[in-house]
Design goal:
By secondary structure, this protein is an all-alpha fold. The chain is built from four helices and no strands. The longest helix has 18 residues. The N and C termini lie far apart (33 Å).
Length: 110
């Protein structure tokens, strides 16, 4: 799959690393914000802009740093949704794609 923006490639690469448990979900915030911004500026396909905006919303709901959402989105649900968008199947939603159990350092919340 080829993306028209370097920021989109960066966002997808960070998302894949997150789904397999290499990085914390906070590593997606910057790439996702940049992708959403530049997708809007350059007027790329609306689906790419919508995906970046959706991931930003999901990240915000998961982080819920200021309690702006009545209920935070559980990280396992964030991982499941992003994996689904990427076409990655997770056998068990409580298990990371690399087979490690949830709760590992890359899976911890703030």
């Amino acid at each position: 799959m080829t993306f028209p923006l370097p920021e989109a490639r960066e966002m997808v690469a960070a998302a894949r690393r997150y789904v397999i448990g290499e990085v914390h979900f906070s590593e997606l915030v910057g790439p996702t914000e940049r992708c959403e911004f530049w997708a809007r500026v350059y007027g790329v396909h609306p689906a790419l802009h919508a995906l970046a905006a959706e991931w930003q919303r999901l990240l915000d709901q998961t982080w819920n740093e200021r309690g702006q959402h009545p209920v935070a989105l559980p990280e396992r649900e964030l991982r499941r949704r992003i994996a689904s968008h990427l076409g990655i199947s997770l056998a068990d939603p409580t298990e990371r794609a690399d087979g490690a159990a949830s709760g590992s350092p890359a899976d911890s919340s703030r």
